[in-house]
Structure formats: structure tokens, C-alpha cells
Design brief:
Blueprint lengths: L1 H36 L7
Amino acid sequence: MADTAVRRTRRTARAAERDTERAQAAAALQRALDRRDNGGATGH
């Protein structure tokens, strides 16, 4: 039973890391799209 608990904990931690990475990737993509779409005076 202890092995199962340890495995479950690790999997949960890994899933949380994946969620964080996914959120960061989504934010980076959104920033890239925003940067590309900013064509006006404020655009780079």
C-alpha cells in the first residue's frame, strides 16, 4: 500500500508540473500572438 501511495504522490506532482508547463506554454504563445498582432504605435 505504501508503494501505491508513493507512486500516486509522484504522479500527482508530475501532473501538476505538466499543468504548470502547459499554462506557461499557453501564456508564452499568447504573448507571441499579442506581439505579432500589435502592429500599431505600440507594436514593436
